[in-house]
Amino acid sequence: MAQSQEMRFAMVTPPSHVWTQFANHFAEGVAEATGGEITVSVFPAGQLGNEAEMLQQIAAGVLEMGIMTAGTMSLRAPDFAAWQDPFAFADVSEAIAAADTEAAQQMLDALAPQGMRGMGYIFAGMRHILMADRDVTSLEDLASQKIRILPFPAALTWWRAAGAVPTPVALGDVYQALSSGLLDGVDIDLDALVGFSMQQAAEHLILTNHIAFPGVVVMSDSAWNGLTPEQQEAITSVSEESFEWGNALQVEAEAANLAALEDQIAITRLDNAREIFAQANEAYEAEFGELPLLQALRAQTGR
């Protein structure tokens, strides 16, 4: 009889976020598929550290599983910056389809030499801009504004070129940072915005759809290698079903989150965002445009 074991699955998102719901769904599926041999315990909201800390723990085999932003993963495998290609996808559904490409799988495969197994992609919503006290209709409105970002290279490049001051702040601290004036705005998906009630600390939501925002589900090699072949097969099957379930949930959540915000905050639909951010897009292209898997992802998605 296989020995029972616990696997810890960590992420920075709040309990209501699709990434956390995905993790809970996965945990339930694993328990059922393995007859209780494997228990997956979910730790949301950064309970086990920030993304950089969790990623280090996974690579070292101290933490079994996590969901990391593609931007954070680009610090380990640069081609993950392909997911920060600005205005590459019109909506979450297009981005989800791109995750099935060979290029997207090759990004996951690049983690193998680093003690990690890339299991797949679970998407948050498209990214928008939340501002404490001003609307944004041009780059002049962002000049010298402190915008919360995750501190990965593509985001730093894009926001600096837009004239803003990219400011790293832990996700759980954003509400207070907006309230206190430490931040002027946030680069954010609607799931995280609603999950942390950020609309209560800001006056304007600017819908830009400037990037897709996949989470990369990773497992430590030591955790994977400690499983029996039957357990590995069960986890693979459950993960495939969970990715399909979670990404379908995200498509629904986009509309539901926006509807929930309609009467809580002023919303601007920036239909010409690609043109407004042209100089930022050019800066991204100059620095990352030659990435092999960015070029492959574009070709494989017809761009």
UniProtKB/TrEMBL annotation:
GO annotations of cellular component type: periplasmic space
Record's keyword terms, sorted: Periplasm, Signal
GO molecular function terms listed in the Swiss-Prot or TrEMBL record: carbohydrate binding
InterPro entries: DctP_fam, TRAP_DctP_sf
Main location: periplasm
GO biological process annotation, one example: transmembrane transport
SUPFAM superfamilies (alphabetical): Periplasmic binding protein-like II (SSF53850)
Localisation: Periplasm
PANTHER family with a match to the protein in the record: DICARBOXYLATE-BINDING PERIPLASMIC PROTEIN, PTHR33376
Protein name (record): C4-dicarboxylate ABC transporter substrate-binding protein
